[in-house]
Each structure stands twice: as structure tokens, then as C-alpha cells.
Amino acid sequence: MLFEAQLGSLRDLDAGIYPYTTSSNTTAAFAPVGAGCPTVKVGRIVGVVKADATCVGEGPFVSELFGEDAEQLRTAGGEYGAKTGRPRRVGAIDLVATRYGVEVQGATEIALTKLDVLSYMEKIPVCVGYLHDGRQTADFPFPAALAECTPVIRYMDGWRCDLSQMKDWSDLPQAAKDYVETIERAIGCPITYVSVGAERDCLIVRKETAV
Questions:
Q1: Measured between alpha carbons, how far is 109 from 88 in angstroms, rounded to an integer?
Q2: Is 151 in contact with 130 (CB distance < 8 Å)?
Q3: Other C-beta atoms within 10 Å of 182: how many?
Q4: Domain containing 150 — which CATH number?
Q5: Closest CA relative to residue 190, chosen from 46, 94, 8
Q6: What is the pTM of this model?
Q7: Angle of CA points 157, 206, 48, to nearest 5°
Q8: Does residue 19 have a cis bond before it (omega within 30 degrees)?
Q9: Is the CB of residue 122 less than 8 Å from the CB of residue 159?
Q10: pLDDT tens digit string along 68-108?
């Protein structure tokens, strides 16, 4: 039995960045309840994480990019509303928020998507922490404090080549592997799938898992 979710952890009514949340719970533990089979135990939780960060709507977005940097990333990733064409907010992957999302979801593994979108970058920004009140932290703060946080950015080497035809983990350039492995270590959850394109056959199975 497969449950599929849409909204991310930070839109969860209880664990999210209230008041910029939806009206329900978007964490995996509530999937059986919402589907009408509350006694089902969820045994495998695949968290879906983009290789960059995006946001629809208002609310704090610590790793947000602006200006030409944002427009380039938005264009590369096709980050526009499917119906409205409205540009989405984009930013560097936020390891603080992602790690928090993994924790509240109870994720057992991660599917990292849109790695190919970053291929144009010579240096790739990664948000590794927050500065708040003069102090650096790697812990996700109480949501009310997010507006006062600024990102701590680390730059990683880009790979500057097309990934979309690569079918195996061993095919990827070392810089792309380093990027994936850095995320994996930071969030404390194995990345078992890596997406390098929009097509179904562009999904690299990095680690086999028992179902």
C-alpha cells in the first residue's frame, strides 16, 4: 500500500512554520488517518527533497536567493506555477530545514530530485546553518525566530555537465557525488534515489533497500 503526500513538512499545521501552514497535518504519521485506515502502520517513509530549495506563497525562507541568481535558478528548474505561470521563490538547499523535515517525517530514506538543475553552476551555494542573534546554529529554531535568521552559506564545486543521460551512480562526476553525500551526512538519512531529469528513466537507484 502506497500513500503519496504533496505538501512539505514546514506546511504541517503542528510542526510547520505557523501561520504559513495548511489546515491539516502533512507529516507521514497522519497518512493512514487521512486515507481512512488509521490502524495501518507506516514502515517505510521516503522523503522527497529537491537539490535546491523552492517556496510557494508567503512566509520565512532563510536560504532564498534574489535578483539574477534567483532568476537563473528559477529558469533552470522551471519553477513557475503550472496553471498561473507565477514565478516561485527559489534558494540554496537548506540543510537546517531539511534535517528538521527528515526528523518530523520520521523519514527512513530520501529521494533527492532535480540534481540536474544545478549543472549550470560553477559554485553551488549550500545553507549549512543560521545566524540568529549573533550566534550560529544548525538547529531549526522556533518558527517565530525565522524572520530574524540569516543563512550561513558554504559553496561547493559544480560539475558543469549534463547529467540527464547518466543511469548509474558511478556515472556521475565526483563533484555531483560530493554534493549528494554532503547532504546525506548533514541530514542523517540515506539518499537512496537521485533524480537527474524529468523522465521516469532519469532516476538513479543509489542504494537498494529492503521493502
A1: 27
A2: yes
A3: 17
A4: 3.90.170.10
A5: 46
A6: 0.93
A7: 80
A8: yes
A9: no
A10: 999 999 999 999 988 888 999 999 999 999 999 999 999 99
Nearest to 52 by CA among 157, 123, 124: 124
Under DSSP, the state recorded for 86 is P
- How far, in Å, CA of 203 to CA of 142, rounded? 35
List CB contacts of 164: < 8 A, sequence separation 6 or more. Answer: 116, 196, 197, 199, 202
C-alpha cell at 153: 552559506
pLDDT in tens, 115-155: 999 999 999 999 999 999 999 999 999 999 999 999 999 99
Mean residue pLDDT of the chain comes to 94
User: Could you tell me if residue 211 is inside a domain?
Assistant: no
Quick check: is 29 in a domain?
no
Distance CA 40, CA 29 (A): 10
Domain tally, the chain: 1
Asked if the structure places residue 176 within a domain, the reply is yes
Q: Residue 50 is which amino acid?
A: K
